[in-house]
Amino acid sequence: MKIDETHDPARTSWVPGADTHRDFPVQNLPYGIFSEAEGAPRPAVAIGDWLLDLSAISGLLPVELHGATLNALFALPAERRLALRRKLSELLSEPSHRPALMPHLRRQDAVTMHLPAHIGDYTDFYVGIHHANNVGRQFRPDNPLLPNYKHVPIGYHGRTSSIRPSGVPVVRPKGQRKPPEAEAPSYGPTARLDYELELGVWVGRGNDLGEPIPIAEAADHVAGFCLLNDWSARDLQAWEYQPLGPFLAKNFHSTISPWVVTPEALAPFRIAQPQRPQDDPRPLPYLWDDTDQQAGALAVELEVHLLTARMRDEGIAPHRLSHGPASNMYWTVAQILTHHASNGCNLQPGDLLGTGTISAPTEEGFGSLMELAQGGKRPVKLGHGEERSFLQDGDEVILSATARAEGRVPIGFGECRARILPAR
Amino acid sequence: MKIDETHDPARTSWVPGADTHRDFPVQNLPYGIFSEAEGAPRPAVAIGDWLLDLSAISGLLPVELHGATLNALFALPAERRLALRRKLSELLSEPSHRPALMPHLRRQDAVTMHLPAHIGDYTDFYVGIHHANNVGRQFRPDNPLLPNYKHVPIGYHGRTSSIRPSGVPVVRPKGQRKPPEAEAPSYGPTARLDYELELGVWVGRGNDLGEPIPIAEAADHVAGFCLLNDWSARDLQAWEYQPLGPFLAKNFHSTISPWVVTPEALAPFRIAQPQRPQDDPRPLPYLWDDTDQQAGALAVELEVHLLTARMRDEGIAPHRLSHGPASNMYWTVAQILTHHASNGCNLQPGDLLGTGTISAPTEEGFGSLMELAQGGKRPVKLGHGEERSFLQDGDEVILSATARAEGRVPIGFGECRARILPAR
């Protein structure tokens, strides 16, 4: 992916505060869907603490954007998306456009953000090898990774109806669980509610049923990225997951960040996929592409913060639970997408792929409480007297991410946050 | 569910051949979406070998039907669907309506049938206990059923994008597989392609995220039934399914029958759920309802036929592979629906639930080739010299179903059929 004038660190924006914004300087330009108290949901681009209403300036744009979803934008060829990006970069940096565009800026904190696309299907993968190791070790100390892990990008289908944008509270789910010491299962609120730190991948152009996607073309099918919290009820999961995988332990709610960070914006932050250990098997040819290996990972730092009800009441800042690189993935985005379509399964614009929990080999980068607190054996101390083995009502989990590279303006993903409400 | 004049065995139709039709006498009246060479997809009701174009007679109906899906119909309260049914029954039985309606009849074999609804999410369950036993025995001879089976209606999410109506050919999928004797996995066309005989359940009225559905209300959330062939690549499945369940082994294609058989049509065919063995655990209260146990099963006979390329060439009739009752389900439809929403997961009109493979304790009722041919150990003889362990290119699998009850006109589901095309 080419680096062009839209990435120029010298480019600045006339939008107040954009140039020093943590997530949305003019080098980012992520898309989303917003609404105001009046009026239908419609497309926007984020700039600093503001957004620009794209439906109001469609006459100025090379691509027509309207409606309540970005699916049509996702379906465009990469070069048309790039044309749109270059135009928006010009509009938001050239001060001469300020008078025409100012009326169409809105403060992000004054609008409601929606899901950016109609999600046809949602698939969650399991590419965070350290997570697979950490979790596998809790179940199978001697043999944490199953024999297929280094050959197959493991994934499974998730639920689309319960995906919500950042900010929508999560009702603590009830469900069946049977702790090992119990004689019989019971039904009630989960006692082991957890988060999972993931990246979400928005599928762009789709493929026809029966037609696989060659890995060399996989990048052309990606429309963007977001943060994804795959909330998990560990007690439900342990009891239900055999033999067909997680179900009610996951499908009660998933939270995504509402801004779609484009592959075009992330071009300067592509790095080589971390090298496989020498004696790991080489993937089968359909999953291997040298170009992808050289630039298939993202130099993105992920962070998780926790804000408890007490911290909120006492004005204590969120506690950072973990931080680590998104490159802790055993398979690249191109590999998971290619694998998904390798049997002819048809992907569609607006499908969402989750990476699976991204963890690290050491605890500062663990991507779930189950890992951090060792399944409840070693509660996490939050520094002001509270501790957590699992999430409590009132807790708020905040995921964030920043892409950084030498000589580049860092760009972020915005927040993916939600608070836990008591079970009903 | 009340039995009314629409079920009267004495009621006949003026539509030619309808009264002796195997599937669609006037007592059935299933809905579907069809199109002709010209014109958009639109709703219809099946009657004999014909269908009635409902968009053309909307002025006569108590419910407005238009558009390319039945989702709005599914979302209606049961009493409004019943009003529509009673009106259609009158229109298609009273000869005085013949002149007005004849122009809006089409032969089913002259139109294209589509998916009846936009499917938001598709979930496949595993309630065929004999299938679970038969398959489990191949993996774990001493302990075929896992400990959760009799407590939890096991289910997992499937893929919506690759669901196709009856008649659309299935491209043999490629994928990764590693036979036990192989040193390493390889990628290629599946060598163990199978079918699975299932019922599909169309979700009607939905529930809000976070709000479970009490089992006493579950029946109100069902809009209809269909047949479902959950095509499966057994070699892909064996290699990929741990620890997160089946994925590419299933999501390359699923076939459903296009006609939605309503709960109203099936009212006379409700029977008691087969009694659980004495020492089976009693389900938890959220999954138990006496009314459901007394009338939660369907007196539906299921059949699977196979037509090979050679049989087609030589004019040999399809070979019946199996037949058995749909009541071979350990959990009722109300139980799987209630369980699905028990964690607050929001179901939506047009969601599709599969029952999982419905099998029998003995081989005449086995619901998949893997069971019939014992994983390839004992190929099925087709009677004219051919045999099958798994499906070959050119094979066509035909699922059918008939509801029967003493003193009632039997009604059927139509066909769910598709032919295997070679891998691309």
Automatic annotation (TrEMBL), chains A, B:
Residues 1-21, 165-188 are annotated as: Disordered. Ca(2+) binds at residues 124, 196, 198, 230. Pfam families: FAA_hydrolase, FAA_hydrolase_N. Keywords: Calcium, Hydrolase, Magnesium, Metal-binding, Phenylalanine catabolism, Tyrosine catabolism. GO terms for biological process: homogentisate catabolic process; L-phenylalanine catabolic process; L-tyrosine catabolic process. Pathway: Amino-acid degradation; L-phenylalanine degradation; acetoacetate and fumarate from L-phenylalanine: step 6/6. Mg(2+) binds at residues 230, 250, 254. Its cofactor is Mg(2+); Ca(2+). Residues 27-116 form the Fumarylacetoacetase N-terminal domain. Residues 1-10 have a biased composition (Basic and acidic residues). One of its GO terms (molecular function) is metal ion binding. The active site is at 131 (proton acceptor). Transmembrane segments: none annotated. PANTHER family: FUMARYLACETOACETASE. This is fumarylacetoacetase. It comes from Rhizorhabdus dicambivorans.
